[in-house]
Design a protein that fits this description.
The chain is of the alpha+beta class. The chain contains one helix and 14 strands, in the order αββββββββββββββ.
Length: 215
Amino acid sequence: MSWPIRTRTGGDHAGPGRPVPDPAVRTRAARVRTAVRARTRTRARARVLGTLAAVVALAAPVVSAAPAAAAPPPPCLTSDLSLSWAPGGTAVSGGTEPGSSRTAVVALRNAGDTTCLLDGFPKVTLAQGATTENLVDQRSVAHSAVTLEPGASARFTLTFRQGQSGQDGVIEPVTAIVTPPNNTASTNMRWRWGPVAEQESADPPRNFVGPVVAA
């Protein structure tokens, strides 16, 4: 007795008693497997990048932040400065040699209890009653700001042409009115150095004041 021979011609064959899988189910399963593999690869790349970033951070040099620049001290106030005539000038008490150029040095001592700053030219006016002579700034002299600790001193120099008492164009000062740099208040000093020839507008400057410098 001969039996019929069965051959597979393609398609899904679940075998006897087994249901044939739905193609849509198989498609969804494939998509799930693809998504899982993609997430796995993404996580692996993230771990590698994180490791590289940590290595770079460890290898990078440590740069410390630059310290903030300290603020400069405030300007010295006239009320905190003690002014006096100082040695070092060529002026002679009462005056000498009319027509000669003389110098007088002024010391400025910080009599306050805080550090302060002097920077620039004082204003100086020589006064005899209502008659005055203003000294101009001696711009040819280099200078920089001077920091004064409490009790420390700075100085500046007056240059003037000695005059002859009783002559025209001569002032016989009684007072030197001094206004320190960056101030409006002034202080008076008794003038000791005799007559001063007034500045003529057509002449080169001959009566001037230098900047404040370190003592």
